Structures
1.
Amino acid sequence: MSRFWPVTESAQADYEGLRAAVLATGALPADGAAARFRRRGLAGLIAWPAAEPVFAAGFRGAARPAWSPYADPRLDALAAAYRLLLAPDAGGRHALVRAVMEESRA
C-alpha cells in the first residue's frame, strides 16, 4: 500500500493485497480476488470487489461552553463540519480529501 494514497475502496484493497502477495512471493495467491483477477483482469477487481473498505477516524475533545438559551454551539459545529466536508477549494478538491492527503504525507 502506498503511504501517499491510503486505501479507501474495496477494489483498491483487493489490488493492493494482490500486489503485496506478488511482490513477496512472485505469484498470485489462491483466493477469490486472485481468481477474479485471473478471469477478468483489473476490471474484475473493480466491478466485483470482495474486501471491506478501510476507514480511519479519530475523535478530538473540546471544552464545552456555558449553556445559553439563545445559541446552540453544537449546531454551529455541525454546520462547520458540513462546510468542511462539502465545500470544494479553488482546485476543485474537497477539504477532507486535501486533509487526508496532507496527513498521509506526514
2.
Amino acid sequence: MDWFQRTLAGATSPKPPGDQIWFGKEIGTLIGFIGCVVLILGTFQLLVSTRLFATLRQAPEPAQTGRGPRWWLALVVTTALPAITFYPLMKIAPLVFFAPFALTGSLPFALSTFSEQITDQLAVWAVGTGLIGWLLSFLLRGGKPAFAPHWSGALGAAFISVGAAYLALVIVDLAFKVDFRFWVLGLKPFDARHFAYSSSICPSSPSSSC
C-alpha cells in the first residue's frame, strides 16, 4: 500500500498503510469463500442421505488393490500433467481458441463474445489437459472399476448444491454488498452478459475431467 501511495496519483489525502480496513475485508471475504465451499459439500452430503438421491450412495470399488509401478507412475503423471501443460497451452490458447472462428469467417463475433482472454486460455488449458490425460489413461490404467453411473441423480444433486451456494452469494451481496473472494480469486453474482459468457464457456469444465 505504501508503494501504491508513492507511485499512483488520485488520492488527495491517503490514509496511512497501517490504518486501513482492506486487509480485514480480505480475511472476511476469504472466510465467506471457505464457507461457500463447505455449503456446497454439506448440501451434497445432505442430498445423498435422502431417498431421492439414494442411488448415489455406493461403496467405492477400486480397480486394483495393490500399488505397483503402474499405479505410482499414473499418480505422478496425473499430478504433474496440469502443471506441465499450463504454460504451453496458455501460450497457444488464443490461436487454438479463435482459429475455428477465423476459418469460418466469424472472428469479429468471437472477439466480441469471448472477450475475457484469461478465461479463454483456461478453457483451452482445461480441455487440452483433459484430452492428454484421457489418451494417457489407455497406457496407465490398471483395470476398469465396477461403477454404475447415475447421471440424472448426480446432475440434480450438483445443480442443487451449487444453486444453494449461489443463493447464499446473492443474499450476501444484497445484504452486505460484498462477495466471496480472496485476492484475485472471487465469486460474484452474474449479470446478463457474464451469465451468457459463462454458459458458453462452461462445457470446457466437464470435458476436462473425462
3.
Amino acid sequence: MLQLFGTDGVRGIANEEPMTPETVVKLGRAFAHLFKSPGARRSVVIGKDTRLTGYMLETALTAGITSMGVDVLLVGPLPTPGIAFITRSLRADAGVVISASHNPFEDNGIKFFSGDGMKLPDALEAQIEEMIATGAIDQVRPRAREIGKAFRINDAGGRYIEFARTRFRSGSRCGGCGSSWTAPMGPPTGSRPRSCRSWGRRWWR
C-alpha cells in the first residue's frame, strides 16, 4: 500500500518523490475530491513558507485542486497557525500549508487542514493515499465550467496580524528567540517584525 503521509503531512526532499510536481498534482486532486459537493462551490486556502521550492509545489497543488472543480485561495507566506486561522476566517472548506518546518532548506512538505483549521484526520489521509495508489482519482475529470479558479488574497497577512494582536498580552516583549515565534525557514521575516511595529514595539533578534 502506498504511504505518502507521515506524522505531520507529506515531507521529503523537494523535487524528489513524493515531493515532485507530478505527485503533488495528484495529492491536490485527491484532496479536493474529498471536499467536493454537488451544486456547491468549494474553496481551499493554500499558504507556504519562504523556501524557493514553495513556488513549484504551490503551482502544482493549485493545478490539482482547481482541476477537480474546487477554488483555490492563495495567501502567500504565513506561519502555519496563520494559515489555519485564515482558513477559518475566510470560511474555506479546507486549507493547505506548504512547509517542512524546521527541516533542512532542501526539504519541503505539505500539511492539510480541515475547514476548522485542524489537522486532517488519519482516515481522510488514508483515503487520499488509496485514491492515488489505485488510480481512482485519475478517472475523475471535470470539464469546462466545472474547473475551479485561483484567487490571490492580498490582505491575509494583515488579517493574521490583527488576530495575533488581540491575543498578545499587553506589555509583552517581541523577540526572535522567544517562545511566541518559531519558523526558521519562513514567513516571520515579514509578519513578526511587522506585528511588533504595528503594536508600537521594537523588534529584536
4.
Amino acid sequence: MDIYLVDGTYELFRHYYALPSAKDAEGREVAAVRGVLTSVMGMIKSGVTHIAVATDKVIESFRNDLWAGYKTSEGIEPDLWAQFPLLESTLAAAGITVWPMVDFEADDALAAAAAAAALDERVGQVIICTPDKDLAQCVRGTRVVQLNRRTRTTCDEAGVISKFGVAPASIPDYLALVGDAADGYPGLPGWGPKSSAAVLARFLHLESIPKDYREWHVNVANAGVLAETLCREWDRAVLFRTLATLRTDIPLFENIDQLRWVQPELKSSPATQTAEVVVAAAPNQPASGVRRRKSGRGGR
C-alpha cells in the first residue's frame, strides 16, 4: 500500500487564489474548501486508499517563540482564514483523516507521519503531497518522496540532490545558510544557494564545516568571507537550522490502518450537512475577480 500525506494549508491557499469566489446560503466563502475537497476526493477515486491531510489550525507555532520574525497569520485574507475550520470539518465528514495542528505546524505533522509510516513494512511508498522545500528533508531514497500535485512532478532523493545540490539530511543546514523568506528568517549574509550547496555537499552539516576556509577544498567565491560570517553568526545559523528542522516525534496515529479511507455513513449531522452545503455551493456566485491576488505571509 502507498500512503498519501497532503499539505492541507498549501492546498487551501492554492485553491483560494486559483478559483473564483463561491458562497453558501449563509454568505460564507467556500470556494477554496470545495476545491480542496474535490481534489482530495479525486485522489481517492483514482485509487488512493490511505490518506491524511495536515492543516495549520493556528499559523503561529513554537518557532515564533524562538525567532520574532517567524511567519504569522498577519496578512491572511479573512475569507481565506475563515475556511480553515470549515476545511477540517468538511474533510473529516468525508471520512478523511485530518490533523489540525496548533503547537506544531502542518509541515511537522507531515514529517512525523512520513517517518512513522515508512517504518511499516507493508508500506510500499510514502508520498508527501506538497512542493514546500522544507519537506525535502523527509525524502528517503525512493521510499519517501515529494509530489507536487500542481505540476505532477515527483521528487525522490536523487531529485532533491539535483534540485538543491545537497542530500535531504542537509536541507535544514542549507536553509539555515540561505534563509527562507516564506518562513521569515534571512539566513546568513553572503551565503547563497551555490556556495551553501557546494560546502554542504562536502561536509553535510554545519558542525563539520572547518573554521579555516583553506581546509574546505571546494570551489566557492569569497570563501574566507563566508567562513568569517559563519563563525561570527554561528549562534544564528544554529537557530535557523532549528527553525528549519521538522519535528518527527509527534504521535499522530498508532497504526497505518487508521489512515485508510472509509466511506462515511451518510447520517444527518452538522458535519455532513456542512460538507453537503460546501459541495453544493453555487460556483457562479458574483466574485470580485476570476482570480485573487496573493497577499500575506501565511502561504507557502
